[in-house]
Fold these 3 entries.
Entry 1:
Amino acid sequence: MSDATPPHHDEDDDSGGYRGPAEVTVGSQHATIDVELSGHFDPIVGRHRWRGRLRGLGATLAPDTPLGAGTEVTIRIPASKGSTTTAIGRITEVDLWGSHMIDGVSPPPYRTQIEEAD
């Protein structure tokens, strides 16, 4: 991760989001990579749905780490005031550029605009 993108909260996107570094855990393997995440509250399900892209995950973990569809991934993002926000998602696919796509149905691993207003 040589040219890391600075952390960014998507202010123009009313659903909220995060772009920047995150600690990702798959099984016992850990890596710090760039992620792009966004989501929204789904009133039908009654939960927050989020989706994102994990850049360079396969290149930073051991070659035998399972990274197929359905693999559980924990994402930790540093938040303001020294706290950390964590969420669990599942890999859904690998895109054409080798990034792993992830979905989650839980509070997202980033602060939402509602939380920031508190």
Note: The two ends are 33 Å apart (CA to CA).
Entry 2:
Amino acid sequence: MAINEDKLMELLHAFVGDLGATVAAGNVVIGHRLGLYRALAEGPASADELATRTGANPRYIAEWLRGQAAGHYVEYDATTDTYSMTEEQAFALADPEAGVYIPGAFVLALGTLKANDRIAEAFRTGDGMGWHEHDEDVFVGCEQFFRPGYVANLVSSWIPALDGVEAKLRAGARVADIGCGLGASTILLAKEFENSTFVGADYHDRSIELARKRSADAGVADRVSFEVTSASTFTGKDYDLVATFDCLHDMGDPVAAAKHVRSALRPDGTWLIVEPAAGDTVADNLNPVGRVYYNFSSQLCVPNALSQTGGYALGAQAGEAAIRRVATDAGFTRFRRATETPFNLVFEARP
């Protein structure tokens, strides 16, 4: 066997980066849970000083900080033996309300990997694994992963990109958020559009329990209700807007769900479909974003779809053509890409 040393070193370089990122995930989550990033964002600190700020053990903090600096998540000043965060690092690591929150993605990833043995068996048998069967970090981490993108884009750009929808919401509209999870998108919309009423639906009872609590905490429970039900059975009629955020591709029968959405809309209603950014071919998606989504999809999205009836398993990198086909097969006559971000495609479907 003739080994090309340059190609081997290229592979090993990628491996070292991946291994470092894999084991670093646990420390990112520790930084999130113990408030280490938030405390360091207050100002430069030595390991001892950060330990004092957070009530943690100095030796653990020292090793944590060194790993964070090696990964370029914090800065290190060798002359003073102190650590600090740039404005960009603090934005992405220390503020869950910002437009990006990196630790949430790692909470989701570690929660996902807790089912690795079962998913490996599913690879052999073809069985599915339902969303509700995963560790709770999957549900909480999923919200922490996606919510910053919704905070940054939902009200400011996604809703305005839809034809006539913002005006309806300002005046007072009926809205259903299907596959709402912990209700992040539902609550964001309710806080912005005070004259409208909202229904969030998800088949996972624990997520709905948390959504109801968060709705009450946000002060919008008088205009928001949640129900435990599937995308094909949610209740209500004459909705002005039905939304599905990052969930259509997870469904075992997305066409049945789309047909139900169409039947629940007013004749001039709108279906807002937010899906992970993806091209229509495998080759289009062989990039860092595609890698993230394909790997999450094999552990979460495809197993969930295969656990349901319907025969679909679109996966997180379904792409625009596949989503358009779902909408068309369900009877929608108008479909367009309304806008996009580096992580999401936003579609508008009309009856």
Note: The mean pLDDT is 96.
Entry 3:
Amino acid sequence: MDNGTLFYITGGVLAASAVIVSLLGLRLEKLPGRAAPLVALWFVVLIGSATTFAVLHSQDEEVPHEEAVGLPQATEEAEEEEAE
């Protein structure tokens, strides 16, 4: 799997977990209670993995600025025009 897919999976699981925990928290008085360390660890792991895969995915998608703007092609065209 590539980094982009892993980012979207971990981000989706993180969002779903946040919604589920918040809905359970509204319904149950004693949530998280004794499970607080486990819930906190779950979110720390998901946030860390989503952040890691986001950074790795952004590095995969990075294009040098000159290529993105088209400067090498424009430079070559300008040099050809000057030579004529």
Note: The mean pLDDT is 86.
